[in-house]
Amino acid sequence: MAQPHRHDRLSWDECLMQMAWLIGQRSSDPSTQAGACIANEKNVVIGLGYNGWPRGIDNDALPWEREGDFLTTKYAYVVHGEENAIYNASTDVAGCKLYCTLYPCNECAKTIIQSGINEVIYMSDKYHDHQSWVASRKLFELAGIKTRQYIPQFKINLENNDGQI
After folding, report:
1. Which pTM was predicted?
2. Which of 21, 57, 82, 153 lies deepest, with the highest CB count within 10 Å?
């Protein structure tokens, strides 16, 4: 008799959000590791991105500071994970969904809307009351972009059934 299949496997939401979190770990930012994963209607990954400098700029060439004058902070220079996922996409992202570790800011929201992504699934909304994120929610609502918070099913287990990683 054949062994029954697993029923405790990852859902697509769980799998794709874990990919967003994992790619975020590539970021050189000392304070924020944000990642994003774009999947089409068949849950095929077509784009990944994390926050960092534009291509070709050395990680030590610009400031990673969070406070100070605009030009002396990372905010003048960093490309967010959502934007990088769109830029890195292997095909058109129209009609796709975007998984991101942080709720998108207003700049990312505009890029998401313009690219045709129709759903945003986010892990954290820690900047909920900041003006940029209030504007983002307004933009998504007006553009008809569905947003929802990801609720984890269970923690990552790096060991297989034999105890091997």
Report:
1. 0.90
2. 82
